[in-house]
Design brief:
- By secondary structure, the chain is an alpha+beta fold.
- It contains 13 helices and 30 strands.
- Strands 1, 2, 3, 4, 5, 6, 19, 20, 23 and 24 form a ten-stranded mixed β-sheet that branches. Strands 9, 11, 12, 13 and 16 form a five-stranded antiparallel β-sheet that branches. The chain has a three-stranded antiparallel β-sheet with strand order 10-15-14, with no helix packed on it.
- β19 (287-293), α4 and β20 (320-324) form a beta-alpha-beta unit.
- The chain is globular.
Length: 646
C-alpha cells in the first residue's frame, strides 16, 4: 500500500470539540497491489485476467479521506470507517445529522459537522472508495463535490476484449421524448447487433419489444429512446446487449481490507510515507468499527462473507461492524459485468443478483438452492469475526425480506451467533429526513404521505453500545427485532392492518424465489419460493416489535415502512420509502371520517399529557440503552415546544 497525500487542511472551519480539540482532514489516493495468487484474493472475479506489473501484481487506486483530531494524542483510539454510498459520505448524516445532508462530502464547513457527535467522542473517521461504478460527479447529488472514486483495471483475455451480455433496467421518471440514459459498460456492437430493448409498465408484466427505429446508442456508453406511448414515467425499459471491458469490481473488497489494515497496523507505507494516524511513531488507533448504511451495508455483508475481514497477516480488519438498512440482501459486485448500484426491489431491479442465499449470519444448508453458506462462515474459520449489529428499518421487511435474517427458507426461527445482534428501527422508512431531502433519484409521487421519522438518535445509541461491546466487552442491549417465537413476525395474510380513511394499503410485498441467471433476463424458478414474513402491528397500525422511538411510543400517527408509487409513476408498485398517516385532531373529526384510531385529543387531553408520554417513552429507551441522555432530553424539549394538546 502506497499513500499519495494530496492535502491536509482544517476541518469544520476550525471548530473545536471539547477535550478532543479541532479536527483536520487528510485527503489522498491509496495505491494498492493485489496478488491474484494469494489465497485471500482468489475469489475476486477476473483478477487473474487483469494486467500485471513487473512484480506480477495487479495495480489499483482509491480515494481516501480521514478526519482526525489535529493532536492525535487526544483521539479516543477508535477508528470509525464509513463505507461511502455511491461515492457519498454518510456517517455524518446518520450520526451527526449534518444539516447539509448528503451534500456534505467536502466536510470543510462548520455546518458539515452537524451536531458534532462523532468528533465529540474523539473518533478518527475514515472514508475510502470501493465502488468501481461511481463516476466523478455522479452520486446521490450530481453536482456535489468530494465523491469517492475508485480506479480498477479492466479484465481482458490476454489483451483481447472480454464480451458478455449485460442488462440495464431504466426508469426515466418522465415521459418527454427522446430520453437518454447512461450504460454501465461499453457496447460491443454499436450497430445494435443482438441488442434488444423492451418496456413493461409493472415488473410482472409481459415485456413489449421496442422497435429498433425508436432507439439508438448515442455513444458506446449511452442510449437514447423515443419513449413508447401508453407507458408512464415509472415504466421499466430493459436493455440487453453485448457489453465489453468488465471492470474488476471485486477489488473494492481488497482496497478496503488493505487500506484499513494499513491505517490500523502499519507505521509507514511501501515508500516510507508515515501512516497519517501515527502517534509517537506507531498507529494511534487500537480498534476499528465499520459503518455502512443501505448499499454500503450490503457491501459490508459481502465483505464478511467472502472472508475479507482477515488481512494478509491473519489479523482482523474490523472489530465491529454496524450494517444497516440492508435486509437480507448482499450485493451485485463480484461478477464479470456487475453493477454495484443495483438492489432488488418489488418494482425496480427486481431480477438483479444480490438477493440470493445466503441471507443470514450462521452457516445453514438451504434446501431450495442446495447451497450451504453463511455470512460469517469464513471469518469463523479464520477467527476474525467482528461484533455485528444488524439494524433494519421497517421498509426492509417489505422490500428487503428482512425476515430471512432470523428465519430459514420456510419461515421457521433460527438461532443467531453470539457475535450478532439484530435491531429494528420501528416504524422507520428506508431513509430519514436528511436523505429524503437529497435522494430524489429514488422517490416518485406516492399514494400515501411519506414517512419522515428520524432514527438518528437511535443510531447514536447503538454505535455507542457497539463501541463498548468491542472495546470493553460490555454486552449490548439484547436483540430487539421481530420474531416468530413471540408472534411479532407473521405471514402477510395474518397481518391485521387497520382500515385508515384516505390511506392505501394493498399488502404488496417484495417476494423472493430461487433464480436462473444463465439466461437474460433471469427468471424465477417456479415452485422454489422463500417464505417472507412481516412485523405485526398494534391497533394504530404501528409495529409492536423493535426499538420504538418516542415517535412511536407517543405517536402522532401511523408510521409504516411501506408506501406505493403514485399516479403516472407505475401506480401501486411498492416504494422504498414508508407512509405516514396522521391521527385526527379531534374525536369529532375521527368519527366523521370513520377512523378507528383514537384522535390526538383523546390520547393527549392536555399538552402536559403529551409531554409526559414522550418523557416516559424516552426514559424507557434510555434505561434500555437505546437512547443517549442528551437525545432523551431533546425529545422532551421538542414535545414541550410542540402544540400537541394545546
Amino acid at each position: 500500500m502506497k499513500l499519495e497525500i494530496r492535502s491536509v487542511e482544517s476541518a469544520f472551519d476550525g471548530l473545536s470539540f471539547g477535550e478532543f480539540g479541532p479536527y483536520e482532514k487528510v485527503v489522498g489516493r491509496a495505491h494498492g497491489e493485489a496478488d491474484p495468487r494469494h489465497r485471500l484474493n482468489t475469489d475476486v472475479i477476473n483478477l487473474d485476467k487483469a494486467p500485471r506489473n513487473a512484480a506480477g501484481l495487479v495495480e489499483y487506486s482509491v480515494d481516501f479521506c480521514v478526519l482526525k483530531p489535529v493532536d492525535m494524542s487526544k483521539a479516543n483510539r477508535r477508528l470509525l470507517y464509513d463505507a461511502p454510498n455511491r461515492g457519498d459520505k454518510l456517517a455524518l448524516v446518520d450520526l451527526n445529522e449534518s444539516v447539509k445532508g448528503v451534500g456534505s462530502n467536502e466536510l470543510t464547513g462548520a455546518a458539515d459537522a452537524g451536531n458534532g457527535f462523532l468528533m465529540r467522542q474523539g473518533y478518527v473517521i475514515a472514508f475510502s472508495a470501493w465502488d468501481g461504478g461511481v463516476a466523478p460527479g455522479v452520486g446521490y447529488v450530481e453536482d456535489a463535490k468530494g465523491h469517492m472514486i475508485a480506479d480498477f483495471p479492466v479484465a481482458t483475455n490476454n489483451g483481447a476484449p472480454i464480451v458478455g451480455l449485460s442488462r440495464e433496467e431504466i426508469i426515466f421518471a418522465h415521459t418527454q421524448s427522446p430520453a437518454r440514459a447512461p450504460l454501465a459498460y461499453s457496447v460491443h456492437e454499436p450497430d445494435k447487433g443482438t441488442a434488444t430493448l423492451t418496456v413493461r409498465q409493472q415488473e410482472p408484466d409481459p415485456r413489449v419489444l421496442v422497435p429498433n427505429d425508436r432507439w439508438h446508442f448515442v455513444t458506446n456508453r449511452e442510449i437514447e429512446v423515443d419513449l413508447v406511448e401508453g407507458f408512464d414515467a415509472g415504466a421499466l425499459y430493459e436493455l440487453i446487449y453485448a457489453a465489453c471491458d468488465p471492470v474488476i469490481m471485486g477489488l473494492g473488497f481488497v482496497g478496503v481490507r488493505d487500506l484499513l489494515g494499513f491505517l490500523r497496523y502499519a507505521n509507514v507505507d511501501s515508500a516510507g510515507t508515515p501512516n497519517p494516524l501515527n502517534l509517537n511513531g506507531n498507529p494511534g488507533v487500537n480498534y476499528a468499527i465499520a459503518h455502512g448504511r443501505s448499499q454500503p451495508g450490503r457491501f459490508l455483508r459481502e465483505f464478511l462473507r467472502l472472508g475479507f475481514n482477515e488481512d494478509p497477516s491473519g489479523r482482523p480488519v474490523f472489530d465491529g461492524v454496524y450494517t444497516t438498512l440492508t435486509g437480507s440482501r448482499r450485493m451485485f459486485l463480484n461478477e464479470p459485468f456487475s453493477q454495484p448500484g443495483r438492489f432488488p426491489r418489488q418494482h425496480e431491479d427486481h431480477l438483479f443478483p444480490g438477493d440470493q442465499f445466503p441471507f443470514t449470519y450462521p452457516t445453514l444448508t438451504d434446501p431450495i438452492s442446495g447451497k450451504t453458506d453463511g455470512i460469517l462462515s469464513r471469518c469463523v474459520a479464520s477467527n476474525t469475526c467482528p461484533k455485528i449489529m444488524h439494524v433494519d428499518s421497517s421498509t426492509e421487511f417489505w422490500q428487503g425480506r428482512s425476515s430471512l435474517i432470523v428465519t430459514n427458507q420456510d419461515g421457521s426461527a433460527i438461532e443467531l451467533p453470539d457475535e450478532v445482534r439484530t435491531y429494528l428501527l420501528t416504524g422507520s422508512g428506508h431513509a430519514g429526513p436528511q436523505m429524503l431531502a437529497h435522494a430524489a433519484m429514488y422517490w416518485s409521487p406516492s399514494l400515501n404521505p411519506v414517512n419522515e421519522l428520524n432514527y438518528c438518535a437511535l443510531v447514536r445509541a447503538l454505535i455507542t453500545a457497539l463501541d463498548a461491546w468491542v472495546t470493553e466487552g460490555i454486552d449490548p442491549p439484547p436483540s430487539c427485532y421481530p420474531s416468530v417465537a413471540d408472534g411479532t413476525l407473521v405471514p402477510l395474510e395474518d397481518l391485521d392492518f387497520p382500515a385508515i380513511p384516505g390511506a392505501t394499503y394493498t399488502g404488496r410485498l417484495n417476494g423472493l424465489s430461487d433464480r436462473d441467471y444463465a439466461t437474460q433476463p433471469p427468471r424465477a424458478i417456479a415452485g422454489r419460493d422463500y417464505t417472507v414474513l412481516v412485523p405485526t402491528v398494534d391497533s394504530d397500525g404501528n409495529e409492536i416489535s423493535g426499538i420504538r422511538s418516542p415517535d412511536i411510543g407517543a405517536p402522532l400517527g401511523t408510521y409504516t415502512g411501506w408506501n406505493l408509487r403514485g399516479e403516472n409513476y407505475a401506480e401501486g408498485a411498492l416504494m422504498v420509502v414508508g407512509s405516514f398517516m396522521p391521527f385526527a385532531s379531534t374525536a369529532a373529526e375521527r368519527k366523521k371520517t370513520g377512523d378507528p384510531r383514537p384522535s390526538l385529543e383523546e390520547r393527549y387531553p392536555t399538552h402536559a399529557d403529551y409531554v409526559d408520554a414522550v418523557r416516559t417513552a424516552a426514559s424507557e429507551l434510555y434505561d434500555q440503552r437505546f437512547l443517549l441522555n442528551e437525545d432523551a432530553a431533546r425529545y422532551v424539549a421538542s414535545a414541550k415546544a410542540s402544540k400537541v394538546g394545546k
